[in-house]
């Protein structure tokens, strides 16, 4: 009988509950964790743990106390390193050291921020509804459905890299590109205090009924 090559690395329980027909996942419970040398470094929600991002040169490690991050956490993201300080899972402060030696300070308000359209998502969807130019050929042929446009908000808040992900034909994809180009500048997103590129997919529902 062959021995199994599978080795337990980490066991985490994600408690959840149904709330108004939506599944809500609560904070994870860390049951056990073994390091690369198979030393048990965490048990029953207390100890040291390391998280690796699959497919990326990124990791973070630190102490878990009663299933919450506590104290100093360190890690790498690409060529940059960072140090963060937590209290009961709340980020108090962080410092990202760039490959060129520059240091970026951040806290919970600038740790992870999504790009923001001026006026918010509702205003953006209202803008699309009012400015989408339904192609005449699409109207003649009774085209209805969903057009999807991929785009990126770059580090300075500009819209770029527009592509038609899902097209209904008769010029609907091109019309989607045109309306997204009119968005104007966004407030850029942040990750650990630094601006970053964020990709989006915008669904535009077309209905002639």
UniProtKB/TrEMBL annotation:
GO MF annotation list: energy transducer activity
GO biological process: transmembrane transport
Entry GO CC: plasma membrane protein complex
InterPro entries to which the protein is assigned, alphabetical: TonB-dependent_transducer (IPR051045), TonB_C (IPR037682)
Domain TonB C-terminal positions: 119-209
Protein name, UniProt field: Energy transducer TonB
Annotated organism of origin: Sphingobacterium puteale
